Amino acid sequence: NAGVTQTPKFQVLKTGQSMTLQCAQDMNHEYMSWYRQDPGMGLRLIHYSVGAGITDQGEVPNGYNVSRSTTEDFPLRLLSAAPSQTSVYFCASTAFGTYNEQFFGPGTRLTVL
Amino acid sequence: EDQVTQSPEALRLQEGESSSLNCSYTVSGLRGLFWYRQDPGKGPEFLFTLYSAGEEKEKERLKATLTKKESFLHITAPKPEDSATYLCAVTYSGAGSYQLTFGKGTKLSVIP
Tens of pLDDT along A36-76? Predict the structure, then answer.
């Protein structure tokens, strides 16, 4: 199993540009989520999904869009990038039924100029 | 007010010098407390889940304990390869079932 994969690993955008961060998992997990990690702050939840076709907002959803068309994929879209979105983004997944570990991807480091 | 507070922010230990990291939480209705390890440039790696006060879990040189308002991660005779940032997170009844609320982490450096 590859686990949770994310692409790209690094990205530089100009203010106003759009892009999609990709996340995929091969563990058949129902729950997937996106976090951002900023210096001096804990990881913060952006959006999450409890299954295909179902998404909801987390703590810091503004400026981000998500969809979940399959169990495996959960892309994060930045519609009009802003410097405040410079961060490291992590995707995570877990199976329902317990409160056990969530598996995190390797992250995407995004810089918005 | 932060819901999850970790201390210290940074800790330098000599190889073999045991110590503890602290994670205190203010949320009600705790469902689970999680410890993760994060190496530079990588995603968090799961270590432990604790569910109720009095519970303990061990893995190699690490032992996690839980009380009603805090958790400790004890590191016994650490080695340089234990150097990393250790993250604490909770899930609780006032948030989504699987939503993790993280502390800011403790950066551990183990000097040979």
Answer: 999 988 899 999 999 999 999 999 999 999 999 999 999 99
Task: At A38, list the tokens.
Answer: 């900023």
In chain B, the DSSP E strands lie at: 4-7, 10-14, 19-25, 30-38, 45-50, 56-59, 62-66, 70-75, 84-92, 101-102, 106-111
Query: Quick count: other Cβ atoms within 10 Å of Cβ A67?
Result: 16
Q: Please name which of B61, B56, B59 lies closest in space to residue B78, comparing C-alpha atoms.
A: B61
Q: In chain B, what residues touch A31 (CB-CB under 8 Å)?
A: 98
Number of A–B residue contacts, CB under 8 Å: 60
- Residue pair A109/A11 in contact (Cβ under 8 Å)? The answer is yes
Cα separation, B99 vs A45, whole angstroms: 7
Token code pair at residue B20: 């503890």
The reply to whether B68 touches chain A by the CB within 8 Å rule is no
Q: Which helix (H) or strand (E) holds A88?
A: strand A87-94
